[in-house]
Amino acid sequence: MEYYNALKAAGQEVYYVKVPGAAHAYYDWKPDTATKETFNKYGEPYARQMEDFFNTVFYK
User: Fold this and answer.
1) CB contact at 8 A, 30 and 20
2) What is the 3-state secondary structure (H, E, C) of the chain?
3) What is the pTM for the complete model shown?
């Protein structure tokens, strides 16, 4: 949260999204079934959210 707070204090637009049930590195790719299921459940929708956010930041 320190990084989040520092960005806010600097006047940056920032969002903190905690993904329930996912570890910090849930994007780490391994070809096993459990990793694929985790990515499909969490990775796909949150990757779209991140892309939407980055598009608002980098392509204003």
Assistant:
1) no
2) CHHHHHHHHCCCCCCCCCCCCCCCCCCCCCCCHHHHHHHHHHHHHHHHHHHHHHHHHHCC
3) 0.52
Which residues, 6 or more positions from 17, have their beta carbon under 8 angstroms from its beta carbon?
Answer: 46, 49
pLDDT digits (tens, 9 = 90+) for 3-52: 999 999 999 888 888 777 666 655 566 778 887 887 788 778 888 888 89
Round the CA-based radius of gyration of the chain to a whole number and report it.
14
Pull the structure tokens for residue 45.
Answer: 């929708």
CA dihedral (29, 14, 19, 25) positive or negative: positive
- Distant-in-sequence contacts of 42-48, Cβ < 8 A, 24+ apart: 46/17, 46/19
